[in-house]
Amino acid sequence: MRIENSFIPVEGVGETTERRLWQSGVTTWEAFDPAVDVAGVGGTTAARIESFIAEALPRLDDGDAAYFDRAFPSGERWRLYENFRSETCFFDIETTGLDEHRDRVTTVSFHRDGETTTLVAGEDLTAEAIAAEFRDASLVATFNGARFDVPFLETSFDIEVDTPHLDLMYPAKRIGLSGGLKPIETQLGIERDRPDISGRDAVRLWREYERGDEDALDTLVSYNREDAANLRALADVVCESLHESVFVADRTAE
């Protein structure tokens, strides 16, 4: 599903009215005609839709993801993904614990357009390096990052992650996928090259590395990189499933 299929950002247009528009053949902004007879779309709402389209089209041409991040309800942010897929930065962090005020970030992996970059504490993990990874991204994507990864980075490095953020945990729940990232990957058949390790294992590996075990760091980095890269596969599955259930099914429902 693409942004230009959506009317839900418009004041007065909820899920029911949007569905009625689609069922009437108004599946894109271009197809909207204020004269079309759609239940729930009176003169005032039609004018609002026209005004939104007029403002949104140049924003979309400019690749202004932040505009649509503000315009869409938070639960519908997944609709931005198809338009900004190639400019999405998937990232995942490893830490020494769960408290961003006491524990440290050890590694951060970023996956974008098929390439993965990992920053390591004590080597190249700095606020500047993190900011550089986010700088050209239109969208960032995580799993449970709104509650964990983002606040951890912001607190630890005194930065603000203000790029529009798609936390895949929430749209995944909409299609019945709950629990942690690894169980969801298993349900979807997303494979890993290495055996799964837990968050506790990640802490242990970092401690072993601090005591001089370079192989432990290699294992930790490999694990972290797979976490970031597999988010791309998860996003593809989740957003395609929502496209089918929200747009395709609603459009064809009687």
**How does the helix and strand content classify structurally?**
alpha/beta
Helix count, DSSP H or I runs of 4 or more residues: 9
Give the rounded overall mean pLDDT: 94
Helix content: 40-55%
Strand order of the largest sheet: 3-2-1-4-5
Output the radius of gyration: 21 Å
**Biggest pleated-sheet summary:** 5 strands, mixed
How large a portion of the residues is in β-strands, by DSSP E?
5-15%
Low confidence ranges: none
Number of strands: 5
Description:
Strands 3-2-1-4-5 form a five-stranded mixed β-sheet, sandwiched between helices. With 254 residues, the chain is of the alpha/beta class. The protein is 46% helix and 11% strand. The protein has nine helices and five strands; from the N terminus they run H-H-H-E-E-E-H-E-H-E-H-H-H-H. The protein is elongated.
List keywords for this structure.
254 residues, five-stranded mixed sheet
Short characterization:
This protein is of the alpha/beta class and 254 residues long.
Topology overview:
Layout (H helix, E strand, L loop, with lengths): L14 H9 L19 H19 L3 H7 L16 E8 L9 E8 L2 E6 L6 H9 L3 E4 L6 H9 L7 E3 L1 H6 L6 H8 L10 H12 L3 H39 L2
Parallel strand pairs: 1-4, 4-5
Antiparallel strand pairs: 1-2, 2-3
Helix pairs in contact: 1-9, 8-9
